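Handout, section 3.2

Students often ask what a structure token actually looks like in practice. Rather than define it abstractly, here is a full record for LTD domain-containing protein. The first block is the sequence as you would receive it.
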Amino acid sequence: MSRSVSRIAAALLASGAVVAMAFPASAGESVAQPHRSPVVLGDIQYNSPGPDTRSQRSLNGEWVTVTNNSRRPVNLRGWTLTNSHHQSYRFHSLRLGAHKSVKVHTGSGIDNRRHVHEGRRDHIWGNRHDTATLRDARGQRADTESWGGHHRR
């Protein structure tokens, strides 16, 4: 093979590699994508209004919103909501409708589709800093929100 033919072949191979890098992977190829849950944390009221007492009013003034951003309902049975001190709330059978939210209150009360209660006797969310982590029934992290000085995402 002549030198000029070798150079042309090398140039064609190199240009093919550049072209291949410019196109995304085809549907048949497996490209690892991070898991993004449609169920996420929304607003968090970590500092209950007024003084932090152990009254139900004060305890239930502390809450976390969990939102389903998908078009389909999601059963939250077995999902957990955990703070940075590993205090967890495990959801019982709760069907969260498409584009709906539920508030998870720290204290006690009557559960329904829009409000559930952990039944705790003390506040669990840190007023200065904390991290809320939502995990699905398989233990996969769905979402995390932090505030204050200690962030863990």
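Discussion prompt for tutorial groups: Residues 12 and 18 are 10 Å apart (CA to CA). How would you have guessed this from the sequence alone?
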